[in-house]
Amino acid sequence: MTDIDYGYLKDDDGQRFYPITNYEVLTNKPDLSDFAKKSEIKTNSADLANKFSNLKTDKAIYNPNDVVIFNLTLNQSVAKIRITKFRNEQNLGSEDVLGYGNNFQYQWQVNGDDNAQYLVKFSNLDNNDNVVFSDYIAVNVNSNPGVFPIMGFLSKYDNYDPNAQKKIIEYLSRLHINYVQYYDWFEYHDIPLYTGDHNQPSAYWTDFANRPTRLDVIQKYIELCKERNMRSMAYGLMYGASTNQNINGLNDWSFLYDNKTTSHNPDGVTVNRLPHPMFKNDLYILNFLNDDTKKLIFDRWQDVFNALPFDGWHIDTLGDFGSKYPFNADVVDSNWLANVGYKYFVKGARDYFGNDKQLGVNAVATYGFNPIAGESVNYLYSEQWDFEAKTYDEIYQKIRQMRNVRSDIGLIIPAYIHKNKNWWNTNYQFNTDGVKLLNDVIIAGGATHLEMGEHMLSREYFPNSDVSMTQELIDYLPKQYDFMVAYHHELSINNPTDYFTLNRPNINSKNYVDNTKYTVIENSDSWVTSASIINTKGLNGNDWQDANADRKLPEPVYNEQAKFNSKFSHVYCATIENPEPIELSQDQWGNFVIPEIKNYTLIWGIR
């Protein structure tokens, strides 16, 4: 064993302490092939009825000094539970408690650290204090959700059923989703909330796609989200109008045109055609450069906030629709519309609504991303399409480029798996391996994937729920999101380096996704180097949309030797299936053994 110096080093943001040690020499390389079974060790106990289920917390995200309430369902009248807390690789200690009855509750007050993430392990013990079964859950502490935004969505508001609504929000909360986008909740983009003569919203209306909508359903969802500290974001276009006529406060100067227009010409207004009769109207493009038009748009959204306690506005755009003409003016080219138009629209919205409302903008296919990111938005958001980023590596590289623009807030990626799949004569189920892999690539890039609401997304029209999730996928997602939260610090570092290598030659790529090798995404800060290893070696395809819904993850490998070409006092390992951090012993040359590369293995070294 090595001698240990019990002094400590603090990292740049003061969030983490590292014991100063030397290397521990690895003399006998252990067989760690049972690592994959670590979460279900059964020592001197064959009674599987002692397992518990439904581990959850009372909120999706917490503020410093909050009390976290954990709940789980016991399958026995009396149980002894050991609770162990981790912060990154640090074991913060354990305690044993007794649980009685079917429902078990445990409370823990987090400390005052902000932007802190934890992994909490619950272990069921037998009469000899041996572990029968363990489960894990992450805890995200952040007073500013935009630093680490995880977004879900809602899209159906026709049925007032508080119990069903509660179950939906509970699942989203279990995924630590801290922003909820209320998609197509309104009737018209340009009049999102009609309040009538008495300045009161209607109780019922039909939405943009003629679907019945109830005010009380929206109100209930907002209430449920507030209980779990989730931000409710009202979706709406930056510049969409339901008409090309000079009505409802609009005039000739309110629109953009396809050609130069000097006299009243509704037919010349730029329009985004939509299928009818599904949608009530096409979308006519408002002149979001015009101060009067912006004021009209902002006033209409203030009506929304006066009537419904949304936390903010999620602003959608339609991407690059080319150069356009304001009324009685020369052409404005496409780049200027994004670089100046988007910039000053967002700036105007922030000035109008102040800091009390959250703002986010969809930079479709990264069009307008940089000017939007330069303004006072609360999170970054860019819908990805296969015409711009088709392969796993292309979407990873786009994420990396966007994260380089701004580092103080996080990035959300809507990306629709199976969008181009022809579902004719198939079972309409998501390919679980394809979903896992796309999420792995997005997580390794330091972003989060918008995919979950009342159902999982396969289309840009969020209410579309034709494709169902397998039970395996429903059960797996919380583990994947727990892993992403628990190791947010390691995964959010954005400084590519080249220290890590697998010892077999030409077996891994470095900072690009290669479906013929193991993919390693490596980043370093002053104290930590993290290496995300994604099992892509021999992958049957390279398109992230998994257009044939047949992506199959390669077989796992065990006991792979690796090293960092830099001195680290400690090296740790965690996987999605086994998120508990384990320390890997190093030999005198810094070699260590990775117990498992299954889907996603995280290795990190501490200097």
Written overview of the protein:
The structure is a single chain. With 607 residues, this protein is α+β, with helices and mostly antiparallel strands. It is 19% helix and 29% strand. The strands form ten sheets. A six-stranded mixed β-sheet has the order 26-27-28-33-30-31, with helices on one face. A five-stranded parallel β-sheet has the order 10-11-14-19-21. Helix 1 links the parallel strand 10 and strand 11. The longest helix has 20 residues. It starts with a strand and ends with a strand.
Q: What are the SSEs and their pairings?
A:
Blueprint: E1 4-10, E2 17-21, E3 52-57, E4 67-74, E5 78-87, E6 90-100, E7 103-109, E8 116-125, E9 131-141, E10 151-154, H1 162-174, E11 179-182, E12 204-206, E13 212-214, H2 215-227, E14 231-237, E15 240-241, E16 256-257, E17 271-272, E18 283-285, H3 291-307, E19 312-316, E20 325-326, H4 334-353, E21 358-361, H5 369-373, E22 380-381, H6 392-405, E23 411-414, H7 432-444, E24 448-450, H8 471-486, H9 488-492, E25 500-502, E26 508-510, E27 518-524, E28 528-534, E29 557-564, E30 570-575, E31 582-583, E32 591-597, E33 600-606
Helix pairs in contact: 1-2, 6-7, 7-8
